Amino acid sequence: MTRFQILCVTMHQKDFSKLNEMNVHSDIVYANQSDRTAFEEIDFEGHKARMISTQTRGVGVNRNLALTYADAEICLFADDDVCYNDDAEEKILKEFEAHPDADVIVFHFASNDPHRKPPKYDKTKKWPKFATTPWGAVRIAFRLDAVRKANVWFTTLFGGGCLFPSGEDSMWIKDLRKAGLTFYVSKETIGKVSYETSTWFTGYDEKYFYGVGACFTAINKRTTFFKYLYMAFRTKGKGSLSLKEKFSWMNHGKRGYNEMLPFDLYKDKYIK
């Protein structure tokens, strides 16, 4: 029987109460950003939960840690603010069984925020090689052997707790596609996600567009202008910044990335 495992990044956990909060009915590995170093493991419902607690910080570092401890054929990334449907594991495994050529399958989550709705697909289908990839890591299930063979890991410069606030998901996906992995998008909804709190998203403000500029520069410096244009118009009407101000802060992000300066230090140095 094919084994399935959730790989979840979390913070300051003292026990396994997240199992109930997230409605987990599968094997799971928690990469716990904590003030201690410990390895804990429990059995529940015929499944195994592991908690790897370290004093490291950063989403990318801890997604990589969870990947290191993963040992199931099919894995799914998670944040600790998701809540799974009872049949999430069954749906995921059925989709991989129905599409044996799929290395990665992107699933749908319902959202409690009307302004941040993950895209929903009406049918399961192979995703074109050069199409956009508007997905966060929590939607991504994958064959562990395929990802390990590609030797693709998360950047430790981007994401919550890192030098720059976001973008690690996009970079990881880009590297997998560059490595030739086959992507599918699924019609199946496997849970819901809460956007009530975030370690990095404070709105479409200066810090957000600074991070966007840094991320686009890291991905491909030659195409930043067109990506800036796309992002400026995609976020039209969101936040209080004008198009000109959005461009300005994305350019600041480009410079900040080249100098390896986080938002606050960049402002102290250059914004008077």
Features:
272 residues; alpha/beta; Spore Coat Polysaccharide Biosynthesis Protein SpsA, Chain A; 2 domains; 10-stranded mixed β-sheet; 9 helices; 10 strands; 35% helix; globular
What's a concise summary of this model?
This protein has helices at 18-21, 59-69, 88-98, 144-150, 168-178, 206-219, 224-234, 243-259, 263-270; strands at 4-11, 27-33, 38-44, 47-54, 74-79, 82-84, 104-111, 125-126, 140-143, 183-193. With 272 residues, it is of the alpha/beta class. A hairpin with a 2-residue loop joins strand 3 and strand 4 (47-54).
Strand content: 15-25%
The biggest beta sheet reads: 10 strands, mixed
Quickly count the domains: 2
CATH superfamily of the largest domain: Spore Coat Polysaccharide Biosynthesis Protein SpsA, Chain A
Q: How far apart lie the N and C ends?
A: 61 Å
Poorly predicted tracts of residues: none
How would you classify the quaternary structure?
single chain
Strand count: 10
Net shape? globular
Question: Which value, in Å, is the CA radius of gyration?
Answer: 19 Å
What does this structure look like?
- This protein has nine helices and ten strands.
- It is an alpha/beta fold and 272 residues long.
- It folds into two domains: 4-193, Spore Coat Polysaccharide Biosynthesis Protein SpsA, Chain A (Alpha-Beta Complex); 206-270, no CATH class.
- Strands 1, 2, 3, 4, 5, 6, 7, 8, 9 and 10 form a ten-stranded mixed beta sheet that branches.
- Helix 6 (206-219) runs antiparallel to helix 7 (224-234), helix 6 packs across helix 8 and helix 7 crosses helix 8.
- It is globular.
- It starts with a strand and ends with a helix.
- The relative contact order is 0.13.
- The mean pLDDT is 91.
